[in-house]
Amino acid sequence: MKTSLREKRAGLGFSEGIEDIVNAEKITWDNGWVNITADHRKQWKRAYPGVNIQAELEAMNQWLWANPARRKKNYPRFIISWLGRRQEVSLVRPSRVEPAVHCSGNNVIPEPKTKEEVEEAVRANKESGNSDLVAETLKQLRRRQPE
After folding, report:
1. Which of 28, 32, 58, 110 has the fewest CB atoms within 10 Å of its CB?
2. Tens digit of each residue's pLDDT (9 = 90 or more) over 5-54
């Protein structure tokens, strides 16, 4: 006796949860996502680990809202394609791991100055005469620029 393909799949565990998939509400968009479940988000997170699913769903929402003439017929396909492209971008441009280095070579971010420290620095610059030199240099540069 021959075994049908359906029976073979059932023996391999393919039919588990198939009723849930068939009976699931269709994902749609009506000025916001409809019928996206926690299970959808979990599956997408597993398939696209480098993507912030919630942020991308909001980006898709804004794109659909801004492009009413380009509405989609198959929203699950639209979502999967969008997330796939974002995953590729995240693989090409990974997030920064090491801190940025300033052009001076100093990668330590200085502590913010207090109001008193700023006032003291301004007073010291005025007393040194350097502020007049900087102002004069800026005036000369402005004169040289064509308008």
Report:
1. 110
2. 556 555 555 444 544 544 567 888 888 888 899 999 999 999 999 899 99
Q: What angle do CA 31, 53, 82 make, to 5 degrees?
A: 70
What the block records as the tokens of 57 is: 């769903």
CB 101 within 8 A of CB 108: no
Q: How many residues does the structure list for the chain? A: 147
> Tens of pLDDT along 62-109?
999 999 888 888 999 999 999 999 998 877 776 666 666 666 676 777
Amino acid, res. 84: G
**Three-state secondary structure readout of the chain:** CCCCHHHHHHHCCCCCCHHHHHHCCCCEECCCEECCCHHHHHHHHHHCCCCCHHHHHHHHHHHHHHCHHHCCCCHHHHHHHHHHHHHHHHHHCCCCCCCCCCCCCCCCCCCCCCHHHHHHHHHHHHHHCHHHHHHHHHHHHHHHCCC
